[in-house]
Structure formats: structure tokens, C-alpha cells
Design brief:
This protein has helices spanning 8-32, 36-43, 51-79, 96-111; strands at 81-82, 89-90. By secondary structure, the protein is mainly α. A two-stranded antiparallel ribbon has the order 1-2. The radius of gyration is 28 Å and the shape is rod-shaped.
């Protein structure tokens, strides 16, 4: 039966059924789909921009930052040595850049900022 030929009562029942089905779909979908608002807030999505547009560049920047940090740490650890009492690492002055990069990366991660 077409919408135009339905009585008002039939139209209301049809709409109520559709609303019930949509609410059920939304409830089941929310269990499966991630919380895009929470993700957007976490990665600092700008107003008017979708999470989908910003998540891949954000992940790429994290990977790049992680790679730089890991390389700096590896270089630092390969050149550092332990003092005679084996209580601390001694870092040669030539590796100040690696220390600076590591500190910057830690500051960014502690502030929860985008890299």
C-alpha cells in the first residue's frame, strides 16, 4: 500500500515501526563502530573536519615521531656507558642532539600534543 493511500493511523504505526528499527540498528551499530567523537577529541580534530580525514595523517606523524625517537634512543644507548659503580649512564657530549630529541619527544607525549 502506498503512503498516500494509508490512513493517518497506519502512517503513524509505520513511522513508529521505522523509528523502533532505526533505534535498534543504532544500538547494535554503536557496539560495533568506534567512538569517533572520542577519537576526534583525542587526536585534536579541528571543528568542521572529520575524524576520517585526520586520523591517517595523525597516525603517520606518530609513526614518524616514534621512529625518530627510537633511532635517537638506539644511538644514545649504543654510545653511552655505565659509570664505574654501575649506577648511571654517562652520555658523551657529542650526543646532546639525541638527548634533546628524546626530551622533546617525551615532552610532547606528556602534554598529549600532536607530534
Amino acid at each position: 500500500m502506498s503512503w498516500a493511500k494509508m490512513s493517518m493511523e497506519q502512517q503513524i504505526k509505520s513511522l513508529e515501526k521505522q523509528i523502533k528499527e532505526l533505534k535498534a540498528w543504532k544500538e547494535s551499530a554503536m557496539k560495533v563502530f568506534p567512538d569517533y567523537q572520542a577519537i576526534g577529541k583525542l587526536i585534536g580534530t579541528r571543528l568542521g573536519h572529520g575524524v576520517n580525514d585526520e586520523i591517517i595523517p595523525f597516525i603517520r606523524s606518530l609513526i614518524t615521531q616514534n621512529t625518530r625517537f627510537r633511532e635517537a634512543c638506539e644511538e644514545l644507548c649504543s654510545k653511552a656507558f655505565v659509570d664505574a659503580e654501575r649506577t648511571k649512564f654517562i652520555i658523551p657530549p657529542a650526543f646532546e642532539k639525541a638527548v634533546r630529541l628524546a626530551k622533546q619527544a617525551l615532552q610532547l607525549s606528556n602534554q598529549g600534543e600532536k607530534p
